[in-house]
Amino acid sequence: MTFVVPDQFNRNAKNVQALGAAADTGLSLIQYLCERIGAAELRDLDVLDFGCGTRFADTIINRDVAVKSYVGIDVFKPMIDFLSASVSDPRLSFFHLNAWNPTYNNEGVPMTPATELPIGDRDFDVACMFSVITHQLPADAHSIFSVLRAHVRPNGWLFFSACLEDGDFGYRERTPERPTELSIYTPTLMKSLLQRAGWRVVSVEPPNPKGLPILDSILCLPD
Fold it and tell me: Is residue 104 classed as helix, strand or coil in its secondary structure?
């Protein structure tokens, strides 16, 4: 049976939706993730997707993607409730985190490096974030990096997208009156935030590789 995501839970940007079915763009992004970490597929890997949305659940189910386990965490509770109720694949599970964000959850609780995720002490081979750090203030980005570090195995990976721009400004907002609509970082500040959280940058690739809907992408290993 095909897994159908209601329109209100497809939260990808309109220009991304215009590229085609979410399951297809999701498949391309999963393949790119595998390429970056040097894996043929996710069959033997436990994956934590922070700020998951519905795209990868759609992809894994409807495009028959091999994965050992997939855990999605998101601040949008109605969507997480839908996923938890509608996805019967035992490899997939979903959890709500009431984390504050000016754009996506302004009634939540601000994260700190000590924030506990609702997954106990589970750890993973890969933690990924797509279009998450693009919407974070620096303190919140550092908290997220720190929290994820506690759940990634010593030989695991962190892979995420961000909006990077050279300069000496550190961090700025594309639209200052709408903070976190698009948060822009210099590579120097991003590297510093990651290092303080226990990560080492392995590689950075520019936006839209192979026409994929992804901004600058950063691959890290535990430091």
Answer: coil
